[in-house]
Structure formats: structure tokens, C-alpha cells
Batch of 2 targets.
Target 1
Amino acid sequence: MKYALLILNMQKFYNYNRINISLKNSINNACEYINMALDLFRKKNLPIIWIQWGEGSPMEEEAGLIIYRMEITDIKDILKPHKLDKIMTKVGFSGFENSGLLEYIKENEIDTLIITGLIPNVDVKYTYMDAENYDLKPIILKNGLVECNIGEIASVEKKLSNIITINELEKLIG
């Protein structure tokens, strides 16, 4: 199996002062786990893919929070992309939609995606389902999702069967 870490929508587009404490905590918690996964993948020289909303995205406004065009593709400061990481933009909800992700996966013979990021009930879910449709194995990183609405992560985890903890991930990728 060849694994890749897929990080969805973790750019700094929120006006951080205008969001509620619950969302701030969810962002910080997810970033902590994403950073742990980044360390594991970098130690093993495994692919890391960042998928961001691109200009023209349907996400002009999500949950009442404004996306600033100047920062739409800038990744959150708490997360540190490496120069060797692949950074792509998408226009639709799925990470596969108009991003070149599928082509990159095929070129690099990746068959398993560890998925993290923002908007579990839309972008994460659609990316997960598309991965299955392309005969890939998607796995959600437990605690690696940002919850925009209360109960959203639990709802998504009920529907998407492959979930892994950071400790299980460390064992899986050796």
C-alpha cells in the first residue's frame, strides 16, 4: 500500500476574531493532530497533499464566516507545509473536483488517503466518497477534522467507516 496524507481546506480565511470559541478550539485541536500526522509522513517520506479552495469556489461564505480573497490559498500559520508537499486548489466541494488530485494519485501510485481538514459534512465527506468511487481507500484521521457545527464530526464518522487514530496511523505506516 502507498499512503498519502490529504489535508483539505486548512487555509487562513477566517477572520479569527469573529469566530466562536468552539470553532477556534476545533481548529486548534485539528491542527495539533494534523501536525502529528505531518511529522509521521515526513519521517517516512510519504506524499503530503494540501487541497485548498481556489478562486471561484462555491464557498464565498460558509457558516456565516467570510473568506478573504487575499488569504484564500494561504495555509494556516499553525500548519507548516514543506516545499516538497503538493499544494493544489479545487473549485468544488470534493478534493477531486477540478484539482488534478486524481491524476497526481495515479502518477504516484497512491492507493490509500489519510484525510484531514475542514467541513467534514461536505468537503471531507464528498472527497471520501469520491476516493471510494475511484477504488482508493480513504481513511479519516480521528481528531484531524474541524467541526464547524456541533455534532458534525460525530455524524460524519457514523457514515464513513474507515477512521484511524494517530497511534494506529503510526503503526500502519511503520
Note: The chain has one domain: 3-173.
Target 2
Amino acid sequence: MTARTISKDMPDFPDTVRLTQEAPGMVGDTIEGTHAGVRHTRRRYAATLAALIAASAAVAGCTTSAAGPGVTTTATSGSSTATTTPTATATATPSATTAPTAAYPADVPAEARANTPDGAKAFAKHYFAQINKAFTTPLTGLLPPLSTNTCKSCANYEDGARDLVQNNQRYDRLPLVLLETVIPPEGEEGATLIDVVFRQEPARLVDSSGKELSRFTSKTGIFLLHAKWQSGVWVTSEIQLRQP
């Protein structure tokens, strides 16, 4: 099997390693030396991911807040499903509070605690919801209990949240809206891989007075989250960005 290599190109959303075109299972990729049926499965899966991204782009303006305070609901078409993600309440002056990190968080949903493929997908949704919360509140300490101590991308996200707290800054809306989670055809020993189709929103980085300092660009893409079942719970061991 072709080895997975990682480039140092970074997306707008902070510090996630990107898979290069040598990575198996990415959109449009086939792996030399595998059986025709496997290549067909990967091509079909790649086409599915491409369709999900296309559908997401088509409904980029369809975000509503009808689900109630602190929730954003995004409707998607085709094989995508509607996904509801929690938002953080906007505050004029961000708090420097640090969430406890000693124990596995009690707010991890029951469905994200099951040692099943669906449980892994639910965990991936929860993990990215915590990233959103960390960057919009802002708040540190949310991600380490959900990550292995060797996950560099996880550490980068936590560092980003810490910088926001220290600089009294935050993002004014969810940076990421999750559109779909899918288990890809390729596997990894000791981990469950989850493709997370997302839309990056044009969130504004603001200071304590609300002044805009910068903003993300709108785009859609796919994160590849590596989830490990460790001590009876899911944790994130790596996050990568699939390169279309």
C-alpha cells in the first residue's frame, strides 16, 4: 500500500496537517497494486465525498438559527444529513477560564461513548463542536481530555485557544459547520478513521471591543480524524486535511 505522507501546507483553520496526493483514499485517488474491486470501492467512495462537498457548496447560504439559542442548524441535500452543532454565547470580554482536564468530560454525549463505528462518528462531531466552542468563547482545556498526548494537531488547536484567551480575542461565529461524517474504506491498525465533511465559515476574529482583526475565507473540505478507543473512551490521536 502506498505510504501516507503529509505536507506542511495549512488550511485557514489553524494548524491541521494536510494529506498529499500520495495518501490513500483521498478524492480522486487510486492505489496501485490493489485488486480492481478495491480500486472501484475507493473511486466510488471518492465520488461520494466529492458529491457531499458539491452539495455543501450549493447550500452555503442556508444556515439558520431556528433550532434555538446557541445552536446552528445546517440543511444539506443529497446524501448529506442535517447536522446540529452547539455554539458559544458571544461575550464582549472573553473569559480566561480553563476547563478541568483531569477526567474525561461528562458532557461527551452517550452516543459518542459507544465502541462502535457510529460511536466514533458521534465522537468526531463532538470533538469539532468543542473546537468551535474553544475558539468562540474562548476557552482552554476542552481538547486535552479528548486527545492523546501525541496528537500534534490537537495541541495546535489548544494553543490557538490559549492565544485567544491571552489576547482577549475570539471568533464571532462558528468557524466550522459539520455537514457529514463517514467511515472511509481504508483502515488503520489501532484506530478508527472518520472523514468529517465541513464548511469553513467566514468567522471574524475580534478583540474585546468587537473590532475585526481578520476573518476566515469560506470553503468546504474534509478532515480525516483518527479516533482511538483508549481506557474505555474515544480520544483523538491525529487530525488531517484531505487535499482535493
Note: The longest helix spans residues 36-58.
